[in-house]
Amino acid sequence: MDILQIVHIIQGRRIAYIIIAAFLIDCIIGDPQNPLHPMRMIGNGIGFGIKTYRKMSITSPVTQFILGMLTSLVMISLTYSIVFYLRLGLYRINLWLGFSVEAIMCYFIIAPRALRDESMLVYHRLNDSDIEGARKFLSYIVGRDTAELGIPEIVKAAVETVAENLGDGVIAPLVFILLGGAPLGFAYKAVNTLDSMIGYRNEEFEYFGKFAARLDDVVNFLPARLSALLMILGSAFVGGDVRNAIRIYVRDRRNHKSPNSAQTEAVCAGALGLCLGGPNYYKGVLVHKPTIGDDINEPVPSHIIAANRLMYAATISAVVLMSAGAFLLSYI
Q: Does residue 241 register a pLDDT over 60?
């Protein structure tokens, strides 16, 4: 075995251990909320780009698109470069120091516990018959108007959020960590954050955010479908209706304006026997959306717990399969 083969094996093992370590840290600590959180720092950088764009008062759609594309590419490249050279410097100082910091960095970009904790705040308020409190906490994690929602609608919204965010909040970051460690994982999160901040079809961001929105669709295309498959697999371990999950996935996986969002929502709707999607109000405007799933069960608060079980089953499946894959590939 020559030196290149040894380096290849060590690299594969490093990625496997980082994936496992990042997941375990998230399970133990959760997502810390502070101004120095890497995602907030990326958001601040994008916010600076938005302020600059607004000051320029550009009216040409073509110029808006070009400026938005440049803003996106600069943010993604800057994020990747900072993490890449920081990681490189730490590994040169000490192998264990580099590994420890990279594992912590990767922990910051996966969020299964945050998904669970935020949705369970809604569950606990519903369980205490505090519907106003449930609406308040739901408003923190969804874009729709929540002030008039009843219990079934609150439950459906929380379940949809857990299911949809499995892809871009957990599985997709793990995929990019597997492919390129913390630098590529952070580059993905920069794309995702750009989409969440400027990828809107409104008067201000229609052209400025178009590149970011389309890029987010592209980078999430395969991870979203992998997420759906992992959720189907996970439903077999937590008592979900696997056959119905597959049936609804095949039928309704395209029932969303995004090419990716309905993938996991369809599996979750089928596994839990719920009808998700449909019309909702956003800033007072009624938006009609296709439904996903069938009205087999009435939405009740315990469905939020069931959705989180599905999300964690899919996450654990991903961690096991990806870390095992990294180990095996290191010997090829």
A: yes
Query: Distance from CA of residue 139 to its chain's centroid?
Result: 18
276 three-state secondary structure: strand
CA distance 22 to 38: 15
Mean of all residue pLDDT scores within the chain? 91
| DSSP per residue, 217-256 | HHHHHHHHHHHHHHHHHHHTTTT--HHHHHHHHHHHTT-S
Contact 199, 213 (CB under 8 A): yes
- CA 162 – CA 166 distance, rounded (Å): 6
Q: Does residue 234 carry a pLDDT above 50?
A: yes
Beta partners for 275? 293
Q: What is the separation, in whole angstroms, between the first and last Cα of the chain?
A: 12
The structure's pTM equals: 0.92
Q: How far apart are CA 227 and CA 170, in angstroms?
A: 9
Question: Cα–Cα distance between 320 and 107 in angstroms, integer?
Answer: 16
Q: How many CA atoms, within 13 angstroms, populate the side-chain half-sphere of residue 104?
A: 12
What is the share, in percent, of the chain residues with pLDDT greater than 90?
Answer: 79
At residue 281, the pLDDT reads: 86
- Confidence at residue 4, expressed as pLDDT on a 0 to 100 scale: 47
Contact present, 263 and 224 (Cβ < 8 Å): yes
Positive or negative, the CA dihedral 321, 324, 327, 330 is: negative
Q: Which amino acid is at 176?
A: F
Token digits of residue 43: 């958001």
Kindly indicate the confidence band of residue 287, based on its pLDDT and cuts at 50, 70 and 90: confident
**Cα gap 302→273, rounded to integer Å:** 13
SS3 40: helix
d(CA 176, CA 172): 6
